[in-house]
Amino acid sequence: MGGEGLQQIDRLFRELSRRFPTHHKSTDNTFGAELPANLFREIFESRRLTMIAARQWPQDKPLPDPEQFLARNLLDPTLKDMGYVPTNIEAPNAGK
User: Domain range holding 26?
Assistant: First the structure.
């Protein structure tokens, strides 16, 4: 993704934070750009359950593997090249 694409994403997140400040504060350190596989699947599963309740998704139809929609082979190395630090990184213990 080029610099222009990253700028668009940054503008989008700033606008969402401005419009929904409470939601942003509650999710700020929950999901990061690295999109861990289990959390990415959780997003899709949550939406699937909502759609089942609204009768927009067949109850017996399983969720497809969401990883097929993510170019992880591009995402992970790009984040590494950018020097991206994952959201939920644990602080090092000063005494060890």
Answer: 1-30
pTM, two decimal places: 0.52
CA distance to 20, 40, 67, per residue, from 70 (Å): 26, 9, 5
pLDDT tens per residue, range 40-74: 888 889 999 999 999 999 999 999 998 888 888 88
2, part of any domain: yes
Among 36, 27, 38, residue whose Cα is nearest residue 86: 36
- Count up the domains in the chain and report the number: 2
> Model confidence over 18-42: pLDDT tens digits?
777 665 555 555 556 677 788 888 8
Domain contains 89: no
CA dist 88 and 52 (Å) reads: 31
- 18 in any annotated domain: yes
